[in-house]
C-alpha cells in the first residue's frame, strides 16, 4: 500500500518529479511563464531563466511544454542535458530532434549544419511555425555548444529569428554569459528565479495537497509551516522534501498532524549545526500545541507576529523575536531581510559585507534575532540568517567625492547575490543599506571607494561595464532624510566568499 493512500489521497502530494500537474503558480513563476510565451510568439530568439538549485526551473520548463503542446503553430524540442563530448555530437543530437539528420555518408559537421538551416527555413518561413529549442541544465553548456547556438541565432528573416532558444540554468551560467559577450548580448529575455516567500510556500503546500485529493489541507500546524520555511529558505525542492519526510514521520508515529518538533526532527540534513535542546524543544512544542488549538485553520500571513503571541505564561517571542520588515515606506524597518548561507561563508564575513564592519555590537544584534545560533563560528550551509536594521551614526558632510553605484534593489537577497557575483580583489564592492520615508528600504551596491572628480568615477564605471552588463550611475549626494543602516564611509570585505570576518 502506498503511504498516501493511508491519508485518503489518490496520489503522492510531495513527489520530487517535475510533474506539470503540481506546477504552483506563484507570482514570479507565472510572470516568467507569461513573458517566456510572449517572447517565443514574437520570435525574439534567445531567452534565459536562471535560478539556484531547487527553485523550480525544470518544473517551469515542463509547464511551458504543456502550455504550447496543443498549439499547431509551435514546434517544441527539449534537450534535458546539454553535455556533449564534441561539436559533431551536439549537431547530430539537434538534427535528430528536428528530424533532419542527413545520410551517414554525408554527415560531416558542414552537412549537418546545412540540413538544420534548411529545416529552420522550411518550418519558419514555409510553414510559419515557431521552432523552439528548450535546454535544461544550461550550466552544463560547453563553449563549443554555445558557439553552435550563437550560429543558429544568426538564422533569421528581416522580421524574426528562425529558432527560439530557452535556456534553464543554475546561477553558474551567469559567469558563462559574462565570459561570452557575443552570446549574452543576444539575450532577449532573462529572468531570475528566487526562493518563495512564506505566503507562497503555504499556498504551494495547500495546492499540492489539494491536487492529491486531500479534503483538509491542515496536516501542518502553523509553527510547523514556519519551521519548514526557516529550514528550506523558501526553495521549493527543499520544501517538498521536508514535507514528504514530515508526513512519513507523522504516519510512522501515528500522529494526526505535523508539528514544529516533527519538522525539526526531519530537518537535520540542512541544519546539523543547530543543536536541539530538550528544554527549549518542549517549551516551543508546547507553545505550538496551544497556539495550534487557538488558531488551527487560520494561518497568519505574518508568521513572526503569529509566533510572538502570548501562549499561557510563555512568551514565544523569546525564541523568535517579532520583527518588522518595513514593507510600508513610511515605517522604519527593524529587519533588513534574510540571507541563505552559501559554501565557505562565515557569520563575520556576512556581517561585514552588510554593515561595513564586524563589531561585537553588531554580532550581538544579529545573534539576538537568530537565537538558534549558539556558536558564531558554526553556521550551516542553507541556514537562513536574519539581519536586523541597525541605524549607523554616519556623518557624510566630509564625504564630498563621487561614488559609483552598480545597482539599487529593494531586497537584500538579490543585492547580496549580485555582491557575490561581482565582488573581486580588483574591483572591490560593498552594500549600503539605507532607508528614506518616500523610497523605503534600498540596498545600494557600490564601488568601495570615493572619487574626487566625476571623470575618475566614470572611468571606474566604464571598467566595470566592460566586464559586466550593468547600467550603473555616478552620484555625489544623498537625500537629506536618508537613514543609513550601515556606515557608508567604511570598507567592506574584499572577497565575501572567503573572508573570515573579524575573528568569528
From TrEMBL:
Keyword Electron transport: no
Top-rank taxon, per record: Bacteria
MF terms (GO), sorted A to Z: ATP hydrolysis activity
InterPro entries: AAA+_ATPase (IPR003593), AAA_22 (IPR049945), ExeA_AAA_ATPase_DNA-bind (IPR052026), LysM_dom_sf (IPR036779), P-loop_NTPase (IPR027417)
Keywords: Membrane, Transmembrane, Transmembrane helix
Database matches in Pfam families: AAA_22
Residue spans crossing the bilayer: 281-299
Ranges for domain AAA+ ATPase: 43-197
Alphabetized PANTHER family for the sequence: GENERAL SECRETION PATHWAY PROTEIN A-RELATED, PHOSPHORIBULOKINASE _ URIDINE KINASE FAMILY
Name of the protein in question: AAA+ ATPase domain-containing protein
Source species of the chain: Desulfonema ishimotonii
Taxon lineage: Bacteria, Pseudomonadati, Thermodesulfobacteriota, Desulfobacteria, Desulfobacterales
Amino acid at each position: 500500500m502506498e503511504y498516501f493512500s493511508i491519508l485518503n489521497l489518490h496520489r503522492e502530494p510531495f513527489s520530487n518529479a517535475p510533474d506539470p500537474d503540481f506546477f504552483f503558480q506563484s507570482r514570479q513563476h507565472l510572470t516568467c511563464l507569461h513573458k517566456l510565451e510572449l517572447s517565443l510568439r514574437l520570435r525574439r530568439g534567445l531567452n534565459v531563466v536562471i535560478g539556484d538549485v531547487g527553485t523550480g526551473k525544470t518544473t517551469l520548463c515542463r509547464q511551458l511544454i504543456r502550455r504550447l503542446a496543443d498549439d499547431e503553430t509551435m514546434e517544441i524540442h527539449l534537450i534535458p542535458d546539454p553535455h556533449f563530448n564534441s561539436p559533431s555530437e551536439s549537431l547530430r543530437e539537434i538534427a535528430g530532434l528536428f528530424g533532419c539528420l542527413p545520410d551517414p555518408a554525408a554527415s560531416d559537421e558542414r552537412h549537418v549544419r546545412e540540413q538544420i538551416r534548411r529545416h529552420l527555413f522550411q518550418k519558419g518561413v514555409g510553414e510559419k511555425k515557431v521552432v523552439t529549442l528548450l535546454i535544461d541544465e544550461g550550466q552544463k553548456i560547453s563553449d563549443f555548444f554555445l558557439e553552435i547556438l550563437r550560429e543558429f541565432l544568426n538564422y533569421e528573416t528581416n522580421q524574426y529569428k528562425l529558432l527560439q532558444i530557452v535556456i534553464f540554468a543554475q546561477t553558474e551560467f551567469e559567469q558563462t554569459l559574462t565570459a561570452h559577450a557575443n552570446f549574452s548580448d543576444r539575450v532577449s529575455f532573462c529572468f531570475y528565479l528566487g526562493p518563495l516567500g512564506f505566503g507562497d510556500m503555504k499556498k504551494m503546500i495547500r495546492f499540492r495537497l489539494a491536487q492529491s485529493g486531500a479534503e483538509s489541507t491542515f496536516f501542518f500546524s502553523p509553527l510547523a509551516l514556519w519551521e519548514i520555511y526557516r529550514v528550506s529558505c523558501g526553495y521549493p525542492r527543499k520544501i517538498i522534501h521536508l514535507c514528504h519526510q514530515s508526513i512519513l514521520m507523522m504516519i510512522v508515529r501515528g500522529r494526526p498532524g505535523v508539528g514544529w518538533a516533527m519538522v525539526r526532527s526531519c530537518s537535520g540534513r540542512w541544519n546539523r549545526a543547530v543543536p536541539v535542546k530538550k528544554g527549549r524543544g518542549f517549551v516551543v512544542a508546547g507553545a505550538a500545541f496551544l497556539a495550534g488549538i487557538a488558531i488551527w485553520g487560520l494561518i497568519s500571513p505574518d508568521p513572526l507576529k503569529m509566533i510572538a503571541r502570548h501562549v499561557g505564561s510563555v512568551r514565544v517571542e523569546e525564541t523568535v523575536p517579532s520583527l518588522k520588515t518595513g514593507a510600508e515606506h513610511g515605517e522604519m524597518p527593524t529587519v533588513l531581510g534574510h540571507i541563505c548561507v552559501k559554501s565557505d561563508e562565515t557569520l563575520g564575513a556576512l556581517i561585514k559585507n552588510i554593515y561595513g564592519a564586524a563589531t561585537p555590537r553588531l554580532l550581538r544584534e544579529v545573534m539576538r534575532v537568530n537565537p538558534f545560533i549558539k556558536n558564531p563560528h558554526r553556521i550551516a550551509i542553507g541556514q537562513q540568517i536574519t539581519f536586523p536594521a541597525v541605524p549607523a551614526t554616519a556623518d557624510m558632510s566630509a564625504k564630498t567625492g563621487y561614488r559609483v553605484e552598480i545597482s539599487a534593489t529593494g531586497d537584500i537577497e538579490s543585492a547580496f547575490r549580485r555582491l557575490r557575483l561581482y565582488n573581486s580583489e580588483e574591483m572591490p564592492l560593498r552594500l549600503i543599506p539605507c532607508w528614506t520615508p518616500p523610497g523605503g528600504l534600498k540596498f545600494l551596491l557600490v564601488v568601495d571607494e570615493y572619487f574626487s572628480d566625476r571623470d575618475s568615477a566614470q572611468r571606474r564605471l566604464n571598467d566595470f561595464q566592460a566586464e559586466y552588463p550593468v547600467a550603473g550611475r555616478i552620484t555625489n549626494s544623498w537625500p537629506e532624510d536618508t537613514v543609513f543602516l550601515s556606515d557608508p564611509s567604511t570598507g567592506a570585505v574584499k572577497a565575501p566568499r572567503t573572508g573570515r570576518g573579524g575573528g568569528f
